[in-house]
Amino acid sequence: MNYEQHTIRAATSADLDRITDIYADAVTNGTASYELEPPSRAEMGQRFDSLIAGGFPYLVAEKDGIVLGYAYAGAFRPRPAYRFVVEDSVYVAPEAKGQGVGLKLMQGLIEAAKAAGFRQVIAVIGDGRPDSASVRLHEKLGFRHSGRLEGSGYKHGRWLDTVFMQLPINDGALIPPDINSLPEQKFRSQNK
Question: Parallel, antiparallel, or unpaired for β 85-92 and 66-75?
Fold first, then answer.
């Protein structure tokens, strides 16, 4: 496997058709997302625009001009005390699974979250079986298990557990927030 062939870059609106297709496959055939119907291209565009407007990282993996996967970080919860915590999402096209695309995307996403000044990255993994590709990927990146909601989703005729995993970054909760970080700057500008 040659992981170097994949280019990780910021996603643009031009990538949304392919992102929509990749996510539609995950919704239709997989259990990582608890959505039951794939969202429209317009809905995916609104989600993308909202994340970009919030300053959150949104990346794609590309090889030979074809987007093979995408990852983004968004607000974990809307209340302001959670502003230093992001939730990650990563999806890989079916034909690109097992080629290191998810790993490269997540490495890039973690670096982007660090650069923005976030302190925790949370993975909320649908169908969080211990042998799931997503659980193994997050473990490989240093995420630790921080909770399980048993039987919290029902999809494709079976009950699914949701697993929470967590990665502290930028010293996590060991030091006070950086007043120059993106989350703190956004908070201060909204509360003037």
Answer: antiparallel
Give the pLDDT confidence of 119-163 residue by residue, as tens digits. Answer: 999 999 998 888 899 999 999 999 999 999 999 999 999 999 999
What are 20-44's pLDDT values in tens digits? 999 999 999 999 999 999 999 999 9
**Three-class SS string for the chain?**
CCHHHCEEEECCHHHHHHHHHHHHHHHHHCCCCCCCCCCCHHHHHHHHHHHHHCCCCEEEEEECCEEEEEEEEEECCCCHHHCCEEEEEEEECHHHCCCCHHHHHHHHHHHHHHHHCCCEEEEEEECCCCCCHHHHHHHHCCCEEEEEEEEEEEECCEEEEEEEEEEECCCCCCCCCCCCCHHHHHHHHHCC
Please tell me the pTM assigned to this model: 0.94
